[in-house]
Amino acid sequence: MSTIGVIANPESGKDIRRLVGNAISIDNQQKLNIVKRILVAATEMGVEQVLIMPEIFGFGERALDDLKNYPTVASGAKILDMVPRHAPEDTPKAVELMREAGAKCIVVLGGDGTCRLASKTSGEVPLLPISSGTNNVVPNFIEGTVAGLAAAYVAQHAGEDRPKEDLCWRHKRLVIKVNGEEVDHALVDAAVVNTDFVGSKAVWDADLIKQVFVTRADPVNIGISSVIGMVQKVAADEPSGAYVTMGGQKQRVQSTIIPGKLIPVDFDEIVRMKPGVDYDIVDIRPVTIALDGERQVVIYNTDRVQVELQTDGPWLVDVEKTLELAVAQNEYLTQLS
Fold first, then answer.
1. Using one digit for the tens of pLDDT, what is the confidence trace for 30-42?
2. Rounded CA separation 159/152 (Å)
3. Do residues 36 and 128 share a domain?
4. Which of 44, 90, 175, 314 has the most CB atoms in a 10 Å sphere around its CB?
């Protein structure tokens, strides 16, 4: 049975970084419409089962009610059988259940934080991230119908008659180790923040950021990775990363840590990271490690913390390449005579 999963985060794109930066956000009605377009496209292209994560807004319930007159959706889509806690932990739990149910592709609506959570349990199942968050380095602005078509093709062909590498690519990750044990990972950036207060998880005060590690950096991307990206590019597909320590007196960069603002950051040099090497964080305690823009790991006085770049992160669907291959195989063409 061909199966895909759909995860939509009702809280993505609503934190303080959007408010202070006067940035637009995708509201839940727009996310619902994207979910509906995914369901129609995927099931019309032959996906037999679509599992939708339950959450507080009820994207799945609302979508199924609105699409009850679409036979393929009505017969193939359903809410995942899990009791939501309405907490971030719901996402990796849902991904795990979808994977166990045979999902071959999981569509994720959210920002970098949502993608990070999904990647914790996705294993070898490809993710198809759609941008609806505050920081959107990993996800792209993909139209829902297009996402549904691509997810269907991956679910039906990847690992079957088409190697996964033809349709997907593997993202890097930053593994956080505390006293030698892996505790979490980031997909884009890990920032050492000079506070042990988590509270609002979003990081937007540059004065508190003491060090930044990145898997990728680009001047077109908003977020903490821009501290490096506005100086030099670290490509998503190159086997290296980079880090920088703030507070130097040699250089200053105007970073785009949050939308709508240019924030000056002083530093001395940017250091390239190699895969498989442990890099120590700055010797300041207590601090918090922010993962993909959100404070997650509190570090105390006796903790030794290291960051390792790894190239075995989640598989991500290359939507453009996937649809080009589908077209080359006449996936959408029917001969009438």
1. 999 999 999 999 9
2. 13
3. yes
4. 314
Question: Could you tell me if 165 and 229 lie in one domain?
Answer: no
154 and 277 co-located in one domain: no
Q: What is the mean pLDDT of the chain?
A: 92
The CB-side HSE value for 123 (13 A sphere, CA atoms) comes to: 13
95 and 56, same structural domain? yes
Is the model's pLDDT at 16 over the cut of 80? no
Q: Quick one: pLDDT band at residue 255, thresholds 50, 70, 90? A: very high
Residues in the chain, overall count: 337
Q: DSSP states of 212-263 as a string?
A: EEES-B-TT--STTHHHHTT--B-TTSS-EEEEEEEEEEEEEEE-SSTT--E
CATH code (residue 76): 3.40.50
Q: Is the pLDDT of residue 3 over 50?
A: yes
Q: CA-to-CA distance for 154 and 187, rounded, in angstroms?
A: 22
Helix (H) or strand (E) holding 113: helix 112-119
Look up the domain containing 108 and give its range: 3-171+314-328
User: Are 115 and 254 within one domain?
Assistant: no
Q: In the chain, how many domains are there?
A: 2
- Read off the CATH number of the domain in which 213 is found: 2.60.200
Q: Give per-residue pLDDT as tens, 291-316.
A: 998 888 999 989 999 999 999 999 99
140 CB-contact burial (10 Å; exposed 0-12 / middle 13-18 / buried 19+): middle
Task: List the one residue out of 274, 224, 215 whose CA is nearest residue 253.
Answer: 224
Provide the whole-model pTM. Answer: 0.93
- Name the helix (H) or strand (E) containing 90: helix 90-100
pLDDT of residue 18: 46
Percent of the chain with pLDDT over 70: 94
